[in-house]
Design brief:
Layout: H1 32-47, H2 53-94
Length: 97
Amino acid sequence: MAAKREPKTPQASEQAPGGPTPPRLRLKLSELRDVTRELARVYRAMKSEQMPLERGKALTYVLSVLARILEGGMLDRRVAEIEKELAKWDATNASRT
């Protein structure tokens, strides 16, 4: 049975001037559905007054920018696939004429 790891505590050099640094939050935000899920979580937290409105607005803005970046990447990949298929189609039909 593996021993349970203790959470790493920040070193003195890593601590903020006002005290220890809070643990880093690592969220998977590499896909559009991940960003959408996090946006929904932020919305629910603001709606239930568990998150200050200003913080929620800032997170929403950053998540919206990230969503646009991911959408752009998706569109780039889809256009590249279409162009590849079109090139195949052109090559096939050019040999027929």
